[in-house]
Amino acid sequence: MMKKFSILAAGILSVAAIGAAIAHESENPAVKARTSVMQLYSFNLGTLGGMAKGEVEYDAEAATRAANNLVVLTQIDQSAMWPAGSDNVSDPSTRALPAIWENFPDVGTKGQAMADAAVAMQAAAGQDVEALKAAMGDLGGSCSACHKAYRAPKD
């Protein structure tokens, strides 16, 4: 129980601290919030991806921490971070395509796939680098599935 609370508290504090520290171009607080969450995903995925690619030495503790953080991040209710009118047509600082709001059920399905892949990574991350590599495919795939469909390319 205490371990779950510690993981949850660490995740919430990470979101709050990093979200407050990072400056964004958008004036929309919802865009700022979701950008901060995406940066936290990226930070933790970078740790895991670096180990999976052999760019960083495998560290079971660091891998487990990153996987735990991802699970916490997938549990955040992001519904208030995606209000209508916060797409890249209305706010050029975001890459969120209007298709998100046209296909919310699919976005939810893709979000659940990310959550499921994060839980699988959580189970694998501390075992060994081979288990981490095996879980990385579904985790990375869940990210790219949503980004390919709903995120505009960089300029």
TrEMBL record:
GO terms for cellular component: periplasmic space. Gene3D superfamilies: Cytochrome c/b562. GO terms for biological process: electron transport chain. Binds 1 heme group per subunit. Keywords: Electron transport, Heme, Iron, Metal-binding, Signal, Transport. InterPro entries: Cyt_c/b562, Cyt_c_II, Cyt_c_prime, Cyt_c_prime_subgr. It comes from the Bacteria. Heme c binds at residues 143, 146-147. SUPFAM superfamilies: Cytochromes. Residues 1-23 form the signal peptide. GO terms for molecular function: electron transfer activity; heme binding; iron ion binding. It holds the Pfam family Cytochrom_C_2. This is Cytochrome c-554. It comes from Ruegeria meonggei.
